[in-house]
Amino acid sequence: MIDLGISKLALIGVVALVVIGPERLPRVARTVGALLGKAQRYVAEVKAEVNRTIELEELKRMKESVERTAREVESQVSSTAADFEREWSEVTAGLSNASTGAASAAPDLSSIGTPLYPEYRRPKKNFRLKRQAIPQWYKARAGVRTRALSGAARVARYRPKLPSR
């Protein structure tokens, strides 16, 4: 990159002041700044696009590897399932042939009985829910206290009134 130090920037500023003149220098500086800003934004957009492309390629490679692994697992599971089915059919074929002679020796499972579960008991009613179910107008008429009062507020509320003279 271009190495611009303070001394080089000062030299460029003095040359620009002499060549352009003090009247047009601020306008030219704004224009140059705007152009530099646009160039920086363009470079940033290009960098971001390149990064997105690289990430997209990485994701495609990861997707292909995951799909390949899934196909391998699927083939292993299907071969294992086929082996299991074959072995199961061999074992059950041997049992079905032997079950004709040994049917009377099997234990009677109906004599075991059903398990006993505890009887359902309804839970006790929740006192707070029951109090909440009473309407506000009834509470006000019956004198049910719904808000806590401080000691000073209670004295002020229930102090006997003095007879007026």
The coarse silhouette is flat
Low-confidence parts lasting 5 or more residues at pLDDT below 50?
Answer: none
Which secondary-structure class do the elements indicate?
mainly alpha
Mean pLDDT: 81
Instruction: Count the beta strands.
Output: 0
Note the gap between the termini.
Answer: 101 Å
Helix and strand succession? HHHHH
Rg from C-alpha positions?
46 Å
- Strand residue percentage: under 5%
Number of helices: 5
Largest sheet: none
| Proportion of helical residues | 55-70%
Characterization of the model:
There is one protein chain. The chain is mainly α and 165 residues long. The chain has a domain at 6-88. Helices cover 67% and strands 0% of the residues. It is flat and about 100 Å long.
In terms of topology, how is this protein built?
Layout: H1 6-20, H2 25-98, H3 127-132, H4 136-142, H5 151-158
Give the structure's gist in a few sentences:
This is Sec-independent protein translocase protein TatB. The protein has helices at residues 6-20, 25-98, 127-132, 136-142, 151-158. By secondary structure, the chain is mainly alpha-helical.
Descriptive terms for the model:
about 160 residues, flat, mainly alpha
